[in-house]
């Protein structure tokens, strides 16, 4: 069986969560954090390595709370995403306060990830179905076939991914023939409405969205050659920075959309009907804790998720 790695992006600061490190907050009945459940589902699906993308300042706390414990279950490695990690000839704009987004997060895995890999957010619960589908895709994908990249994405139903407590960012997808992604648009401030979902703009105006449409939750399946693509693209991104240099981000949905528009990738969308949940705002915490408790009561997970080894 082909080796596959799960890359977990956990370097985000989580400012809307109220200043805490939301990736390390307990939600399960025995103190589990959201990543515990993702790793458990990934191992069950067949992934055999985990790479945590974190900031160096998080390392000691991260190892103590989850890293050392998970290393007893599956091989673990770390990649570090720092704002200052830039190609030669570039420097951090004065006043910038955070790293450069999800594209830079995966680029930080260069030299660490050398096999087909999935990418997820640390603070999202995706359900079991997506891990199985993405793993099955990765063990069968042929790197560079037909001169194109061949990637996949777990697609989630928009109405299943919204928060009761504020706007969220989602990659709105357009799907074409053969379940191929034809466009992805990173869309900010999507809110739950009485009729489903809408984008709320700065003027307070609502633009309705189809609540049944598929969205990206940053659950991707890539081949390792994508990391080289990210390296080249990051330099182009930095060269094009303008007035938004303090906030601009090198984002996976935007990168993928560019590859689609230049006909350089065939990206299969693997729909999941599982209910997503996650923590964007601190007000989401009680709901997420209750959701995990219900999954345990239904027998989806054990109360003590991992058995001691």
Please provide a written account of the structure.
The chain has 309 residues and is of the alpha/beta class. It contains seven helices and 13 strands. The strands form two sheets. Strands 1, 2, 3, 4, 6, 7, 8, 9, 10, 11 and 12 form an eleven-stranded mixed β-sheet that branches. Strands 5-13 form a two-stranded antiparallel ribbon. It starts with a strand and ends in a 12-residue tail after the last helix. 39% of the residues are buried.
Average pLDDT score: 89
What's the overall geometry? globular
- The end-to-end distance, rounded to whole angstroms, is 24 Å
- Helix count equals 7
Share of residues in strands: 25-35%
Main β-sheet, in a few words?
A: 11 strands, mixed
SSE arrangement, N to C: EHEHEHEEHEEEEEEHHEEH
Strand segment tally: 13
Estimate percent helicity.
25-40%
Structural class: alpha/beta
Quick tags:
309 residues; 26% helix; 7 helices; alpha/beta; two-stranded antiparallel ribbon
Please summarize what this structure is.
By secondary structure, the chain is α/β, with parallel strands linked by helices. 26% of the residues lie in helices and 26% in strands.
């Amino acid at each position: 069986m082909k080796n596959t790695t799960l890359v977990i992006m956990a370097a985000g600061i989580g400012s809307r969560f109220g200043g805490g490190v939301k990736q390390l907050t307990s939600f399960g009945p025995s103190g589990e954090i959201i990543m515990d459940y993702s790793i458990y589902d990934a191992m069950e699906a067949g992934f055999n390595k985990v790479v945590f993308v974190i900031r160096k300042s998080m390392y000691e706390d991260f190892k103590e709370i989850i890293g050392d414990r998970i290393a007893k279950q599956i091989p673990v490695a770390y990649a570090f995403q720092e704002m200052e990690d830039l190609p030669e000839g570039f420097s951090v704009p004065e006043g910038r306060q955070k790293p450069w987004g999800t594209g830079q997060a995966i680029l930080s895995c260069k030299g660490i990830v050398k096999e087909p890999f999935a990418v997820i957010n640390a603070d999202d619960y995706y359900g079991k179905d997506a891990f199985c589908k993405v793993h099955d895709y990765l063990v069968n994908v042929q790197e560079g076939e037909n001169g194109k990249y061949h990637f996949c994405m777990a697609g989630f139903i928009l109405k299943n991914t919204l928060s009761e407590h504020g706007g969220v960012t989602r990659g709105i997808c357009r799907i074409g023939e053969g379940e191929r992604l034809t466009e992805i648009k990173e869309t900010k401030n999507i809110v739950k409405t009485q009729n489903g979902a809408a984008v709320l703009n700065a003027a307070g105006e609502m633009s309705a969205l189809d609540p049944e449409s598929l969205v990206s939750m940053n659950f991707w399946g890539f081949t390792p050659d994508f990391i080289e693509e990210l390296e080249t693209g990051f330099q182009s991104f930095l060269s094009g920075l303008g007035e938004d240099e303090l906030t601009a981000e090198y984002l996976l949905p935007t990168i993928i959309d560019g590859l689609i528009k230049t006909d350089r990738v065939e990206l299969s969308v693997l729909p999941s009907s599982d209910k997503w949940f996650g923590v964007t705002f601190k007000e989401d915490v009680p709901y997420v804790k209750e959701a995990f408790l219900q999954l345990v009561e239904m027998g989806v997970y054990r109360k003590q998720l991992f058995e001691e080894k």
